[in-house]
Amino acid sequence: MDNKVGFLLKVLLLSAIVSVLIKYVGPSLSIPLSVTNTLIAVFFPSIAIAIILTWRATRDYSEQ
Q1: What is the radius of gyration, based on Cα positions, of the chain?
Q2: DSSP H/E element including 34
Q3: Which of 15, 29, 52, 60 yields a CA-CA distance of 20 to 30 A from 23?
């Protein structure tokens, strides 16, 4: 039970940090509006998660 609460607190803290960064640091970044930047922003999280999960799956498979 304690492990789940700790995990939830870590996720909550990380989310709060990302939110503050987006609110206060994000506007100071001069990222031009373009279709390419929009596509990167939309697809990067999914691609990054897919790469991480594939890497973990192949690592777990090779350890057996």
Answers
A1: 17
A2: none
A3: 52
In tens, the pLDDT along 2-57 reads 688 899 999 999 999 999 998 999 889 888 999 999 999 999 999 999 999 999 98
At 5 the three-state DSSP class reads helix
With beta carbons less than 8 A apart as the criterion, state whether 35 and 43 touch: no
Residues 12, 5: Cα–Cα separation, whole Å: 10
Q: Which residue is it, tokens 């691609």? A: 47
Q: Which of 17, 23, 22, 20 is nearest to 41 (CA)?
A: 22
Encoded amino acid at 45, one letter: P
What six digits make up the tokens of 30? 């001069």
